[in-house]
Design a protein that fits this description.
By secondary structure, the chain is mostly beta strands. The protein has a five-stranded antiparallel β-sheet with strand order 4-3-2-1-5, with no helix packed on it.
């Protein structure tokens, strides 16, 4: 995974739900750093509007569209 990849959340966790983020939602990685196995993800539902920008564990994400090189 890398900055600007579009990702999908593949699990439902209370800590994400508290921020309005649920399994199946997608967004993009908005920071080039992976800190302690987590990525900062902006959940925007296909460029519509920003729902939340939160840290997500890498294992809880799947890449659905890679960013251009």
């Amino acid at each position: 995974m890398k900055e600007y990849d579009r990702v999908e959340l593949i699990v439902e966790k209370e800590k994400y739900a508290k921020e309005g983020v649920h399994k199946g939602m997608n967004g993009w990685i908005c920071d080039p750093r992976n800190i302690n196995g987590q990525w900062l993800v902006c959940f925007d539902q296909k460029y519509d509007y920003n729902i939340a920008t939160i840290e997500i564990e890498e294992n809880d994400l799947v890449v659905i569209e890679e960013s251009p090189e």
